[in-house]
Amino acid sequence: MPFSQSAQISAIVGFAVNLQPRSVLDVGTGMGQYGFLLRTYLESVYLFEVSEQLRARQRRKDEWKVQIDGIEGFAGYLTPVHEYAYNRMMIGNALALLPTLPDASYELVLAIDILEHFDPEDGRRFLHELRRIASRAVLVSTPKEFHEQEVPANPLEDHRSVWTQQQLHELGFDSVLADPESWVAVARAAKA
């Protein structure tokens, strides 16, 4: 579906806020919820008033400091949120688009509830590409259990695989954020 499990939102956004990336690639944007949330939290400016009260405001678009790009395979999911929150949207198959991006081109790469839509071989290739283009971290989420899902109107939504924590660990995802329904796994880039 074009949105993710709500239970994992805080962990994912919290991870990004702690990392403070200057560039983010959101692969499989769906309706754009993570672009919007990251834009909101990564572009907030906190101001202290004379009375010592904390106030916050969003930076104006011409003041944005974070590059947030997205890849979406199904153009029908694009909304005005994408026009607002993302600097650049790439429409097409992620497995075809990712190899065109330079190594270490984004500090943070997100793939939220997309891995289960690949068969295992393509999923491993997908994770390799995500790690190749990330200079600091990759965060993926995928359901812990297989849920049958076929969407005739958008076959990209069909579930083709289920992943274990061990499989993700073997592919370089060495930490997992707490979530009851999904593996929210992080691979940090090797220090140069």
What does this structure look like?
With 192 residues, the chain is α/β, with parallel strands linked by helices. It has one domain: Vaccinia Virus protein VP39 (Rossmann fold, 3-Layer(aba) Sandwich). The protein has 6 helices and 9 strands. It has a 7-stranded mixed beta sheet. Strands 2-3 form a two-stranded antiparallel ribbon. α1 packs across α2 (33-42). The longest helix has 14 residues, at 120-133. The radius of gyration is 17 Å and the shape is globular. The model has no long low-confidence stretch (mean pLDDT 89).
Helix/strand/pairing category: alpha/beta
Distance between the termini: 37 Å
Shape call: globular
Name of the CATH superfamily: Vaccinia Virus protein VP39
Measured by DSSP, the beta-strand proportion falls in 25-35%
Number of strands: 9
State the major sheet. Answer: 7 strands, mixed
Number of helices: 6
Short description:
By secondary structure, this protein is of the alpha/beta class. The protein has helices at about 10-20, 35-40, 80-85, 95, 120-135, 165-170, and strands spanning about 25, 45-50, 55-60, 65-70, 90, 105-110, 135-145, 175, 180-190. It is built from 6 helices and 9 strands; from the N terminus they run H-E-H-E-E-E-H-E-H-E-H-E-H-E-E.
